[in-house]
Amino acid sequence: MLEVSNLGVRYGRHVALEGVSARVSKGEICVILGANGAGKSSFLGAVAGLVGTEAGTRIVMNGKDVTKLDAHLMVEEGIALVPEGRGIFGELTVAENLRLGSHARRAKPDAGKMLDFVYGLFPRLAERRRQLAQTMSGGEQQMVAIGRALMSKPDILMLDEPSLGLSPLLSKELFKSLATIAAEGFGILLVEQNARLSLKTADRGYLIETGRIVGEDTAPNLLKDPKVMSAYLGDA
Ligand code: ATP
């Protein structure tokens, strides 16, 4: 469904990503693991159309070349990003934040259906629909951010460090929700610090080091690879 090949990103003279290729299929959860500054956020930003890419980059979504499209057009192609820090509107209610997600042309006809899906996935959001987003807890705000992205009816949901700042218990619940979302047929591409938890839920993983992919395997294989364990899971 999403196929990225030879992706490059530069910030001035600094090469942040070079020759990065990755793919995500329908219903699949892929995680990108890497140290701070490896280029993970730049990768998601580039795929979302927020960060410019170098010549030679090719991003294909559902068979269509979408390489140079702006972010709002990427949403129309079915790519939604939940940014690090969530990016929700604190002064708006939960329901208003969710409604903002359904402005995409592709989303409008099914807005009611998607809202039911989001409220079914996160019943807390339904209970608190009139509450200002800024007064929600960290975990609830993450639900709002994911819900808003889902409202655009994406084929691929991308998440930048979704468990950041969440307790271990809430992180576990978050990953359960991601598994439910994938089981509905959405593809998920996420960047995570929490390597162990994300690999337990993911189907496949990519390892990224200083802007290049240095490994790719199924999540179970990565979890039992001692080199991966020591480099990304913080174990010896
Ligand atoms: P982290 O986990 O710390 O967020 P990351 O793997 O997501 O890191 P990126 O944020 O993609 O990494 O950054 C990759 C490299 O590009 C880093 O060296 C970073 O300093 C640099 N970089 C990112 N954004 C910019 C920018 N707007 N201008 C200049 N350099 C940038």
Small-molecule binders here are: adenosine-5'-triphosphate
Total of helices: 10
Structural class: alpha/beta
* Percent range of helical residues: 25-40%
Summarize model confidence as the mean pLDDT: 93
The end-to-end span amounts to 36 Å
Task: Fill in the CATH topology of the domain at 1-78 and 156-162 and 188-233.
Answer: Rossmann fold
The shape, in one word, is globular
CATH architecture descriptor of the domain at 1-78 and 156-162 and 188-233 = 3-Layer(aba) Sandwich
- Fraction of residues in β-strands: 25-35%
Strand order of the largest sheet: 6-7-8-3-9-10
Largest sheet: 6 strands, mixed
Secondary structure: number of strands: 10
Secondary-structure element order, as H and E?
EEEHEEHEHHHHEHEHEEHH
The low-confidence parts are none
CA gyration radius, whole angstroms: 17 Å
Query: Looking at this structure, what is the CATH superfamily of the domain at 1-78 and 156-162 and 188-233?
Result: P-loop containing nucleotide triphosphate hydrolases
Q: What quaternary form is this?
A: single chain
Give the CATH class of the domain at 1-78 and 156-162 and 188-233. Answer: Alpha Beta
